[in-house]
Structures are given as structure tokens and as C-alpha cells.
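Hi Y.,

Following your request, here is the sequence exactly as I used it, all 430 residues.
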Amino acid sequence: MSKKELTTDPYKGVRDFYPEDKAIQNYIFDTWHTTARQFGFEEYDASILEPSELYKSKGVQNEEMVNEQTYTFKDRSDREVTLRPEMTPTVARMVAGRAKELYFPLRWYSIPNLFRYERTQRGRLREHWQLNCDIFGTDDITAEIEMVLLANQIFLNFGAENGTHFEICVNHRGLLDALYKDLELSEETATAVTRLADKMQKMEVNEFEAAVKETAARAADTILKFLRAKSITEVPEFLKENSTYLELEKFIDDMENKFACPVKFDPSVIRGFDYYTGIVFEIFDLHPENKRAMLGGGRYENLTTLFGGDKLPGIGFGMGDVTMRDFLESHNLLTANITAPTLIVIPTDTELNIDAEVVANTFRQAGISAAVDIGERKMAKKLAAADKQMVEYAIIIGDDEVKSQTYVLKNMTEGSEECGTLEELISKIV
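Below is the corresponding structure, written out as C-alpha cells. Let me know if you'd prefer a different format.
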């Protein structure tokens, strides 16, 4: 019996990062880091392992995630542990652990590695990285405004436009609670309706309506009217006297008129986790081939009490690197210099490799990324490879260039050329 050969494929639902893939991921991470710091956020991190009971606690749990999607196992001491499927419970644990030492409000962010055992599809894998941003220690509505402005700025910093490439949709969990209270729904029925509403965009209209009628028969018409509202003014009249309605109405108005950041009321934005208590929001891709939520978050109030601490309000969001890359590729927003050095230096003969390295290093010392093609391929193939890698500039090094110390800088994008000393050519790029 022959020995079975090992496959070169990675485990299902995870990725290998070849250099071009890693370069794009680094570009995404760099933009996330820069934007979070632009808003004064500090970076934190934690282990990917957590005690499983953290995700089973009332107030944290998302039943589908806990029961079907976590990577959970027993360690050698028979303790049940889970590879973290999300970061919010972890950061709540960390904040609760040092609540008396920290200065509030605090702004923290992280880019953790997360794991969920779910069906793989476009934009959703079993392992991904996720930007998490949170503000702890204030229940002022300004925190909601700042978080949505931060989320919006991330997309602007990638070159996207609000209303053209993406839209920001908002709702209020308190508005939903007010609806349930007026309809006198039991806690069990209300939870079931919330779970359905969270899946509304993924279900056929008839299928969704039938499910709501089966779950909350006598209240179905009112619930469906709420969920079909295209603007906040279209919700059932009795909700307009509720304080959460007035808060959300003002929030929507302030975002557009004071901050030029339009947001849209969408009652189907629920957020599946039980810990959300206030304004919730999602950012949706508007590309016709990639219509999906890319970022989601909202207000939560009670997570730190799970660890014996005082109630500490918080608000946060998360967005994944998989959907971010899909978004950038769908809208052609990946810039030319992401996956390659700015300059490639190409010697005409392998004997000139060291001279080419000297030239490349001069550019590096000036802060310009540069590489040398020391392969033995013909010049035409080297130039074609540089063009395919989206290198911006090229310098060809021959005996004449080495003797004269004068070089030709080729702009690979425009096809133009400029001649000069290394110092002169550096000034053309910097």
C-alpha cells in the first residue's frame, strides 16, 4: 500500500499568505493602524485562547456562534478552552481586570486573529483578522458619533466615498425593545424575532415574513411594518414618543448636518450578539457583486459586570480583513505600490549585480523601497516581470552607467524616462 502524499492545500477555511497577499494584508493593517491612531486610540492585544465559559455567559452569548461555530476543546488539564471567535468579551474582561487603575473614557483598538467554524463563502472564512475599536467609560452620545466617524474615515483613507462605494446604516436596540414591550411579547418570542430580524437580508421576502408570522402571530403585522421602514419617520407612530426614537433621530441628523457623514436608518440592522443595548450600526458595500455588511458594532452597557466589576458603558465595532480586501478589489481601490518596491534596479549582466545593489541601496537610504533583479533572465522578461508586479520605476545598469555614474530612470506607468545622477533621480521620486 503506497503512502498517501501530503496535500499542498491549507486547512479548509484558512489562507496561506504568499508575498503578494501578505503585502495587501499589511496595507490594510497599516491603514487601520493609522486611522485608529488618528482618532487617539491605543493598541492592545491578548491570547487567542479563552475559557469557554466566557462565551456561554448570559449577556454575551450568541447561541449559533457558541453551539455551532466555535473551535472548543479540552486542554491537558481537562479545562474547556475556545479559540476566540470575537474580541469584545476579551476586551471587556481586560478592562474589568484593571478598572480601578485605568483613566476613562479610554479608547482601545486591536487587530486580533479570530476563528469561527462556519460554512466558507465569499467574504467569510474560518480564520480571519479583525479590526476592533472600543470606547469605554462614557454613555455620552458623542462616543457613538466618534465611533461612526472613525469607521467612515477608515473607508475614506482607502480612497472610498460615502454614498458611492459604501453606506452607513443605523438602528437602536432600545427602539426594538420598546416595540416588543408595547406588543407585550414574551422574552422568548422577542429573542426569536431578534434572531430572525438579524437574518432578514439573507432570507427571501416571503420566507422571512412567514417566519415572523409563525414566531409572533398576533404581532407580526406591526413587527413587519417596523422592519420595512425605509426611514426613521416610517416606524409605527407609537414608537415616535419613545426616548430612543428621539435619540436616534437626532443622531442621524447630526451625522449628516454637523459632520457631513450621512447615515441611513435601517431597522434590519440588529447585530446578533445579546450584549448590544443602544445604537447599532453597519457599513454596507454598494458594489452590485459584493453587497454585504463589512463592519458592524454598537453600544453595550453590561459586559464588565460579568466579571464582578461595576457597570461600565462601552461602544465598539469590528471589521474583517477578508471583506476589506474584497471591497478594495471590487472597487479597484488597491493602489499600484502595495505589492512591490517603488524601484527595481536591473543589471545587464550578472557581473554587475553588486554595482546594481550599490545603486539600490542609495535609494533605500533616501527612504525609497528598492530591489535588484539578480536573476539570469533576459532583459525583456525582467522588465515584463517588474511591470506585472506594478513596480513604479526601473533603472537599467550597464558598464556605461557604472563608469559615468549617470543613470536613466524609467517611469513604468507613464513610459517616460529621465537621465541624471542618483541624487538627481532620487529627487524626482521623493
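The chain has a mean pLDDT of 89.

Thanks again,
Q.
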